């Protein structure tokens, strides 16, 4: 005897108000029981027209705005714009400023990865890791507050250097933090790495092959997790990254676990870069010449990319010779990374959506800009 | 040659079980130790942590402490660099051919505390104070005029461009 | 505590009319136990928040009263003052019944649990089965809540809750079989009295299986799939607010407390003071007079363990949850029964009755 059931797919609107869409992403998820059959991401809920704002704010005025492109790793958004303007305008940057930029960039990278670690584990249901991660992040935030005056929107880098020199004893504090942080990373790994529940949630889940990763223009830890050894810091070194010795961690299978491992290892490498930078930092000025607030740069264009915590963050700048850019285009890694989401999620379980999406480390303001 | 380890399905079953138990035990031990570890919470309204020197809080409009004249010369530089464009400055030319500031309004709700204005002020007439508890019950209370923003200081708050640190030998 | 029971019996015997006496004898202990449990639940909510905060290097609620102990009362007050929202197109009758159906069985099962020496509402001789039967009604309430809310997240939560409850009830039952075998009775009082050596010594595997299964039954991390906030917003109670939500919330804590109570009764000697039979007269006196204190302390301990686990482990996935029950727990439970029955038959050492 057989009974025919009428079954149908359920469409779930995940977001924009959902506890774990990291902001305001909306996923239209079609599920068959617990299995996902289709996912359509809907973006644009956080659009603040940051690129358009560049066209009627002069360079100096525009700078605090780009802090909002990626509010989790602020320096990573400030840096490419500064470098692009310096490239077009031929503005020189003193060496000490370059080192300070590297130190702050690596600190914000750790900051961002810690935040990712916490939210990723929260997506998997572990409530404690986020508290531990935020505890360490708080230390970096305090350091940055001491350096820049604010905890989130630093507005610290300037065209041709940085806003202010390091406060006294700051480098020592960073050094202490590095030692402290290496211990803490081990603690996270005790808590997470071999946990059977964690492993069963992430191993073999959300596999992105090399081909898919390249085809979708993925960047950062996702690309490296799939086994492609690439890093803007090594491939086309900006600032003074060519002077440091560090590894690029790569994954093997491209699953969620690899992306986790890559990010954890990246934090360790960041600490190593920080230590080297602190040892090498030269004395000198941090800003060659104070630019007037309505300075002009010659007409021209430049594309400049940096390795943000989520991948290569690029700025394409077209200058028309006035004090305002005629076009600024932000190439943000989250945007391209998120396009893989439907591809990976088909056939996964409903619970996997958040595990996979969490491992992508998508920051929504960066997607929408 | 890489040594290929052959584990039977039963062996793997028990190995997984054992590894899992060990890992969970380690994690539980860590969280147990943390139960008695010192806590990191700041008891905020009771105990306020010291703010760093460079902290950018509420914005202030400076007056001279001695004779109470405003330091602002009405040059509009701050208005030109304000990213949210929230500074409202109105001036007129006085009888002595000097610029007089009539109005200096700012909406604290819009201000993003970027300190661009402080940085460009040629006479150091602006300052970021350490005050940050500016929440109000009424939206209209967020509008600060030049009297509400006033702060009396001895010397202007000039922006000092970063200087090379003195090399100690 | 024994004095209290004696006093109550004396007062009761003063009432002349028998039906009235019986009615009062039914009402008073029930109310006493219910109010005790509800009172404890308020402390539990605070204690969980405080403990989870300690695990996470935070302080937790600490503003209201000493150590923030009145925080849950403030929260209860807030929840009760909230608007009672019913979703559009919701099945209003089921929507209203569901929280009651979840809340009441949770309280009802306490009539079967001996909280102290002679402090039991009804000493039923099939108490364990009645207990499991009553507590499984909760699942029905959760499914009702999920279905009637007219919300897909709620529905998913309800479905998950049922699937989970059904597959975990089997190893749960099987893990208790060993205990029943050793006590030779289904009555909880008998089981406690048979534990001259605590059952945890005789049934370590059984206890582990029982604990894991009951974690799953009460929907606690790592098995809190029906209300997984990162996937299903809040699961079956997404659409609930006000007092109905409070009922779900309280039921969750009552159930967790029940978990501890059952662990205590079945495996940790119930109201008995540790090694009371070895300590001689003092031990027996401690058991007799302060039974309820030991019971609550032991139960609080298990509640704390549940919170501690919540602070450590992530959440499992639906299919893995099922696989875990069938692949690991069920074989282990069967093995436990097998081994226990052999030892019980031989009457070897601590296994002798």
Summarize the structure in words.
The complex is a heterotrimer of chains A (369), B (169) and C (353). With 369 residues, chain A is of the alpha+beta class. Chain A has helices at 50-53, 59-66, 74-89, 95-123, 128-148, 170-192, 196-202, 210-215, 221-225, 232-235, 256-280, 333-338, 341-345, 350-360, 364-368; strands at residues 10-14, 26-32, 35-42, 157-158, 161-162, 300-308, 311-319, 325-331. Chain A has a single domain, classed as Cytochrome-c3 Hydrogenase, chain B (Orthogonal Bundle). Helices cover 47% and strands 13% of the residues of chain A. In chain A, the strands form three sheets. Chain A has a three-stranded antiparallel beta sheet. In chain A, strands 6-7-8 form a three-stranded antiparallel beta sheet. Chain B has a domain at 59-153: Alpha-Beta Plaits (2-Layer Sandwich). Chain C is 70% helix and 0% strand. Chain C has helices at 2-14, 18-55, 71-81, 92-108, 127-135, 137-148, 152-183, 188-194, 199-202, 204-217, 229-232, 242-267, 281-310, 318-346. Chain C starts with a helix and ends in a 7-residue tail after the last helix. The mean pLDDT of chain C is 82.
Question: Which helices and strands appear, and what pairs or packs with what?
Answer:
The complex is a heterotrimer of chains A (369), B (169) and C (353).
Chain A: E1 10-14, E2 26-32, E3 35-42, H1 50-53, H2 59-66, H3 74-89, H4 95-123, H5 128-148, E4 157-158, E5 161-162, H6 170-192, H7 196-202, H8 210-215, H9 221-225, H10 232-235, H11 256-280, E6 300-308, E7 311-319, E8 325-331, H12 333-338, H13 341-345, H14 350-360, H15 364-368
Antiparallel strand pairs in A: 1-2, 2-3, 4-5, 6-7, 7-8
Helix pairs in contact in A: 3-4, 4-5, 4-11, 4-14, 5-6, 6-11, 11-14
Chain B: H1 9-35, E1 59-64, H2 77-81, E2 88-93, E3 99-107, H3 116-120, E4 126-128, E5 143-144, E6 150-153
Parallel strand pairs in B: 1-6
Antiparallel strand pairs in B: 1-4, 2-3, 3-5
Chain C: H1 2-14, H2 18-55, H3 71-81, H4 92-108, H5 127-135, H6 137-148, H7 152-183, H8 188-194, H9 199-202, H10 204-217, H11 229-232, H12 242-267, H13 281-310, H14 318-346
